[in-house]
């Protein structure tokens, strides 16, 4: 048998009738429609179970997202106050309760590292002889020198506000030595 007839016969085997064709299309359309229906049903169920229109939760989620996206560190330029001090200053502006440390607290937290012995020639707490000449420079100069740095002392403005620096000098010098810093 020539090859042509073999091929023609085989195609004949697989040809479908018009009835079979339309039956197939009907069934196929039914399957697609059912799947669509199931999809819509699942969406409706999922929405009723997990959909959340509560504005309070929405706001909380928003807040958390913002918090998570904020950088975990910040660069502080010299001269900018430390974060704790910045927030204290803000709350002062807004009339809130400010937490300004006492002179003794500031001294113990920041200044004592250098001002208790003879470190780099730093005048020690309560050493009237060492403070004598320096005190006569007056408040403005002394506070400025501490905030911006002076001689061997690095700038302390990042660790204490001017108010706290003044309080620290008041405690370290005035209360502990009896010397008095002139106003200007
Ligand atoms: C890293 C060490 C160090 C720290 C911390 C430090 N000081 Fe000093 N301070 C010095 C040294 C050193 C001097 C002497 C500077 C000089 O004459 O060269 C000095 C000098 C001073 C003077 C005299 C400045 C002048 O004009 O003569 C004052 C006032 C003073 N310090 C206050 C403070 C206060 C207040 C703090 C804390 C807020 C503080 N210091 C923290 C090292 C330090």
From TrEMBL:
PROSITE patterns tied to this protein: CYTC
Lineage: Bacteria, Pseudomonadati, Pseudomonadota, Gammaproteobacteria, Chromatiales
Domain Cytochrome c: 98-176
Classification via Pfam families: Cytochrome_CBB3
Entry keywords, A to Z: Electron transport, Heme, Iron, Membrane, Metal-binding, Transmembrane, Transmembrane helix, Transport
Single annotated GO MF: electron transfer activity
InterPro entries reported for this sequence: Cyt_c-like_dom, Cyt_c-like_dom_sf, Cyt_CIE
Listed name of the protein: Cytochrome c domain-containing protein
Transmembrane domains' residue ranges: 28-50
